[in-house]
Amino acid sequence: MAKPTGAIVIIWRDLAEEGYTYAQIARRFPNFTVNQIRHYCLGNTGARLPGPIQKSGRWGGSNVWLRGEKSPHAGMTKQEALNVLEDWDTGRDRWKHSAAYWAEELSVSPSAIQQLRRGDTWRHLDHPNQRNNREAQAD
Predict the structure, then answer these.
(1) Bridge partners, 95 (sequence order)
(2) Is residue 59 included in any domain, yes or no?
(3) What is the mean pLDDT of each run of 10 residues along the chain (139 residues)?
């Protein structure tokens, strides 16, 4: 993996300061990874290089531009996530279909379904059937 010059890091830091996401910066510099850019912008690497250092958590713990299906890591669409969450049987107080069933239907891992149901992922949907929200309603 290529190591950036100090001049490139300064450009990255200036772009990040202007509000560009690390993914947007990486698209301009395809020889470098998003993680590499993030590390240099946060000062985890190259802390002595000039340019503005970004504060950790500048997106408030969640990059709103890469939530849900916009994320490069998304394995399902928003509608598919909602279909999974609507599968709750209120009368029986459990899911109608298993995580394995939905995983096979959507070609994702069962753990992806479990994380969705718990509210670990797709949290921004704030769906009432995500466990975190169901537990809050029960209190």
Answers:
(1) 88
(2) no
(3) 88 89 88 88 80 67 66 84 94 94 94 91 87 66
